[in-house]
Amino acid sequence: MQALPQVASCDIVVFGGTGDLAMRKLLPALYLRDRDGQLTADSRIIAVSRAGLDDAGYRDKTAAELIGFLPEGSYDAAAVDRFLERLHHVTIDVAEPSAWHDLCALVAPAARVRVYYLACAPRLFGPICSGLKANDLVSSACRVVLEKPIGHDIESARQINDEVGSVFAEEQIFRIDHYLGKETVQNLLVLRFANALFEPRWNSRAIDHVQITVSETVGVGGRAGYYDGSGALRDMVQNHLLQLLCLVAMEPPTSLDREAVRDEKLKVLRALRPLTGREVERSTVRGQYTAGLVDGKAVPGYADELDAPSDTETFVALKAEVQNWRWAGVPFYLRTGKRLGHRASEIVVQFRPVPHSVFPDIPDAAIAPNRLVLRLQPDEGVRLHMVTKEPGAGGLRLRQVPLNLSFAETFKERVPEAYERLLLDVVRGNPTLFMRRDEVEAAWAWIEPILDAWRESGSPKRYPAGTNGPTAATSLIERDGRDWHEEEHA
Ligand code: BG6
């Protein structure tokens, strides 16, 4: 394998360093980049938490947990030992001013790249940034990474952005949306802008509608405490699904420059037709799973996991519209949910039918319109459904079949986890794949009236775990004479 370029020497300071995100995603991602030679020998990872561990204790904890979260075949004992040597642990109670001393003593001189990764509750973002500033731990070589959710509505998002913005300049702030680090999501940019084939037809003249689905089989499990105050609209739509919509709908940026891409995404968010009042009832569906069967296993309902009744939605389907010349009249159907029948994330671009059929004996319905499916996970790939002639004599028969680009079959390389790419982009100082303040706030501005309307309109519809969500989600799209794309994971 060709050697990958190293990034600058750095200290990565992870607040919430013993938490679920750090253990499940951040440390495995850093290990993999280290194993592939991208971290310099002197780079360090400093975990901050209230756990009271010393370095040895933290290394032991990581050694025990890492193995469970690494992709199959990527555990290399020598590389793990080397990686563990980079780890340090500092105990800080953020509310305690004197507690910062150990961190001050440990971090390297100000000129070296230092990343503060805030993998903790958003209410701590402001206090942590103030603590960093008060302890003289902020310089122009520092970056701060904010995990979602950035607030729970526009006001709290603004407050967090103000608090963090009073310590760090906007170009030092990296608001992470890990969907932007997924290979297939980046590939969407390549597909659109490195192939002349699609762009001329990427508009309402050729495209009938777009579907974006992120379907999960997992429930909320141990995260019920956080999730119940959030729900699927805040947890998934406000960020991941709207970001995907932006990448599909945006105008071609002049380059992949940090501002060019984000300017174009912002224009899309601002062009979303507001959903308010009665329109929310017509154009959105929210659901909550009850007990059912997922992958043949009995699973409890959401309220049982929470051990309390709740009106929090674990499923959302909605119809959005981008009000501009390119997309006028093209619905974007979005849906996401937990405990559904399949794990599948995909973007489906449904083209319009041919304008006139030249096949006299073939019903128009047999000439299925082209459909482009970008599969984000699992089995990443791109499929373009085309109509072809079935081989054989005795009359013309047409069938739609996919031109299939499977990443696993085409490329030998492992598909990296989103966090691997994004963490190194932070060290490199490249924020193109991160959300800018105005984007986050524009997304909240669109989401908030939906939340307001839901508060007035009763409970979510129940759906049994292991199904495709509430039947109302099917009606939402069928009412418009269209169907959700399901066939590839049937
Ligand atoms: C997170 C959400 O941002 O994304 C989770 O908080 C969700 O609820 C997860 O399960 C999905 O990410 P992925 O990469 O597994 O699709």
Strands side by side in the biggest sheet = 16-15-14-13-7-12-11-8-17
Given as residue ranges, the uncertain stretches (5+ residues, pLDDT < 50) are: none
Name the beta content range. 15-25%
Structural category is alpha/beta
CATH class of the largest domain: Alpha Beta
The CATH level-2 architecture of the largest domain is identified as 2-Layer Sandwich
Kindly provide the radius of gyration, computed on alpha-carbon positions and rounded to a whole number of angstroms: 24 Å
CATH fold annotation of the largest domain: Dihydrodipicolinate Reductase, domain 2
Number of domains: 2
Helix-residue proportion: 25-40%
Total helical elements = 16
**CATH superfamily of the largest domain, please?**
Dihydrodipicolinate Reductase, domain 2
Describe this structure in words.
The structure is a single chain. With 490 residues, the protein is α/β, with parallel strands linked by helices. Strands 16-15-14-13-7-12-11-8-17 form a 9-stranded mixed sheet, with helices on both faces. The chain has a 6-stranded parallel sheet with strand order 3-2-1-4-5-6. The chain has 16 helices and 17 strands. Helix 1 packs across helix 14, helix 6 packs antiparallel against helix 15 and helix 10 packs parallel to helix 15. The protein is globular. It folds into 2 domains: 138 residues, 3-Layer(aba) Sandwich (Rossmann fold); 292 residues, Dihydrodipicolinate Reductase, domain 2. 6-O-phosphono-beta-D-glucopyranose (BG6) binds next to loops. 6-O-phosphono-beta-D-glucopyranose binds next to loops.
